[in-house]
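testing teh design pipeline on a random one, pls ignore if ur not involved
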C-alpha cells in the first residue's frame, strides 16, 4: 500500500466506499455531490485508480461495477498515522499528542476518553 500515491480526494472516496460497504461510481458521486459538484467521469477514474493501487476491489454487476474496500480502514489509518508520526514528528508520540492537545481541537470529553485509554493500558 503506497500511501505516497494516495491523494486527498482518493482518500475521501475510499472513506465513502468504506462507509457504504459496497458502492457504485454513482453512489460515491451522490455522496460527494452533497458537499460539492463533481463529474461522474472524475469519480470513475479515481475509483479505478484506487483499485489499481490496491485500496479498492471491484466486481461487475450487470452494466456497472461495484467497489469494496480491499484494505481495512483501520490498517489505512494506522499507516497514515505512522507516516505522519515519522515525517512530521520525527517518531515522537509525545510531540504528536502534545500538538493535538495544544491545537484545542480535542474536547474535554475526548480528553477524558484518552485518559481512560491510558489508564486501561497502565492496568494491563
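output:
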Amino acid at each position: 500500500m503506497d500511501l505516497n500515491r494516495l491523494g486527498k480526494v482518493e482518500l475521501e472516496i475510499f472513506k465513502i466506499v468504506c462507509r457504504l460497504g459496497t458502492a457504485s461510481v454513482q453512489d460515491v458521486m451522490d455522496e460527494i455531490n452533497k458537499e460539492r459538484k463533481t463529474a461522474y467521469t472524475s469519480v470513475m477514474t479515481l475509483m479505478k485508480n484506487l483499485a489499481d493501487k490496491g485500496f479498492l476491489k471491484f466486481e461487475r454487476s450487470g452494466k456497472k461495477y461495484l467497489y469494496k474496500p480491499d484494505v481495512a480502514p483501520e490498517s489505512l489509518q494506522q499507516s497514515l498515522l505512522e507516516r505522519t508520526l515519522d515525517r512530521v514528528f520525527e517518531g515522537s508520540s509525545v510531540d504528536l499528542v502534545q500538538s493535538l492537545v495544544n491545537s484545542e481541537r480535542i474536547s474535554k470529553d475526548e480528553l477524558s476518553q484518552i485518559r481512560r485509554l491510558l489508564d486501561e493500558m497502565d492496568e494491563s
